[in-house]
């Protein structure tokens, strides 16, 4: 049975339709990440789950109960936000305990629950401090501990790490992952950062414009994006795209000049214009020519050397450059004339509407 279930959930703000109708089931203990660009409706969906926003139509179930019209406090959820307002004059202990005290939980139990939460997120030695005496990461841990002490059935996170610097974000990602493993609660996590989504999620729900674009494991979305949006959104550097078309029974790629592509037994349906996509790591420079491989001559316009890996931006004709992943010590430099080649089996094909052709 689904732990969280959304049935045809629609949401409008006045005349603005933000969520046109979403169906989603989340199983007990699952870590689900809503990912998508800013304004795609992720927070609205989460706030609907939390009961902070009402639905225009549709139904929300948590733990088998219809909670569509239930107050947030009746839903067994706890939410962690990007901006965590801690009480500056209260200690870490009292910040974590605040909600329990408010709900008149017995003193001994408050003590036990706060200490257990502090242990999980390694705050035990900091319980007497004030928020001003903590780092940004420690403050965010306090905010998460405030959620933990409530023993929620479902944790909701809305971009909880966006205010932290890069190193802390990575560290907190591990903490949240460990928290999930330790307490096993259902978690729904919103982020615009596809790396966070890839590293945390059991399943990713990719949003664009209020619509669910694809649901799947991180590697399913990476390897088999179901449309152009997901293909371009998941993965960095982005997938390379170039135009193609169907001609007779074959496919012609516009790669500088028109070249025939062997697309195997993929079902081209009735499409005429295509978009072809290829990941940077599926492109090679100056590989030996052979059989079915496609290639195009170009020039390295820039070379990004990241130490463990390099990315060459290869210009050809008037098209946007192709980004090619290279080994860190590949003997190439800006201005080099090169041949970029690929195995057509690595190509992603998309029809006129952007849907993947498989
Ligand atoms: N209270 C509101 N009133 C009017 N429009 C809103 C309100 N909240 C969100 N929106 C609009 O709904 C859309 C989705 O917003 P949101 O769910 O916050 O997106 P995300 O979290 O993906 O960035 C945006 O166009 C936003 O401007
Ligand atoms: Mg948001």
Major beta sheet, strand line-up: 6-7-8-3-9-10
Alpha-beta classification: alpha+beta
| Spatial gap, N to C terminus | 31 Å
User: Percent helix among the residues?
Assistant: 10-25%
- The parts where pLDDT drops under 50 for at least 5 residues are none
- The assembly state of the depicted protein chains is single chain
Write out the distinct hetero groups bound to the structure.
adenosine-5'-diphosphate, magnesium ion
What is the CATH superfamily label of the largest domain?
A: P-loop containing nucleotide triphosphate hydrolases
Question: Could you say what the CATH architecture of the largest domain is?
Answer: 3-Layer(aba) Sandwich
Mean pLDDT: 94
Number of strands: 21
Could you give the order of the helices and strands?
A: EEEHEEEHHHEHEHEEHHEEEEEEEEEEE
| Large-scale geometry | globular
Beta-strand percentage range = 35-45%
Radius of gyration: 25 Å
Number of helices: 8
């Amino acid at each position: 049975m689904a732990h969280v279930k959304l049935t045809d959930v629609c949401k409008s703000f006045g005349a603005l339709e933000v969520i046109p109708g979403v169906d989603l089931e989340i199983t007990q203990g699952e870590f689900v990440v809503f990912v998508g660009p800013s304004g795609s409706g992720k927070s609205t969906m989460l706030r609907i789950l939390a009961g902070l926003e009402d639905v225009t139509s549709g139904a929300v179930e948590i733990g088998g109960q219809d909670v569509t019209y239930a107050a947030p406090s009746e839903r067994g959820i706890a939410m962690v936000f990007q901006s965590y307002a801690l009480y500056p004059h209260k200690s870490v202990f009292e910040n974590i305990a605040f909600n329990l005290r408010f709900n008149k939980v017995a003193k001994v139990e408050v003590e036990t629950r706060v200490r257990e939460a502090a242990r999980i997120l390694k705050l035990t030695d900091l319980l007497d401090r004030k928020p001003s005496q903590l780092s940004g990461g420690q403050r965010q841990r306090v905010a998460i501990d405030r959620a933990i002490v409530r023993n929620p059935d479902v944790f909701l996170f809305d971009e909880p790490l966006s205010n932290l610097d890069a190193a802390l974000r990575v560290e907190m990602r591990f903490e949240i992952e460990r928290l999930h493993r330790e307490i096993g609660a259902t978690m729904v996590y919103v982020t615009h950062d596809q790396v966070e989504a890839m590293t945390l999620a059991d399943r990713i729900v990719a949003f664009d414009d209020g619509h669910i674009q694809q649901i799947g494991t991180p590697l399913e979305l990476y390897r088999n994006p179901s449309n152009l949006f997901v293909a371009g959104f998941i993965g960095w550097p982005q997938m390379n795209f170039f135009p193609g078309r169907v001609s007779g029974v074959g496919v012609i790629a516009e790669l500088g000049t028109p070249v025939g592509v062997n697309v195997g037994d993929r079902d081209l349906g009735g499409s005429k214009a295509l978009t072809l996509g290829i990941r940077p790591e599926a492109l090679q420079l100056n590989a030996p020519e052979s059989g079915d491989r496609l290639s195009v001559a170009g020039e390295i316009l820039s070379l990004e050397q990241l130490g463990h890996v390099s990315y060459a931006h290869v210009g050809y004709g008037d098209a946007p450059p192709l980004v090619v992943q290279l080994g860190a010590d590949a003997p190439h430099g800006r201005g080099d004339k090169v041949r970029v080649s690929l195995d057509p089996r690595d190509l992603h094909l998309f029809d006129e509407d952007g849907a993947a052709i498989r």
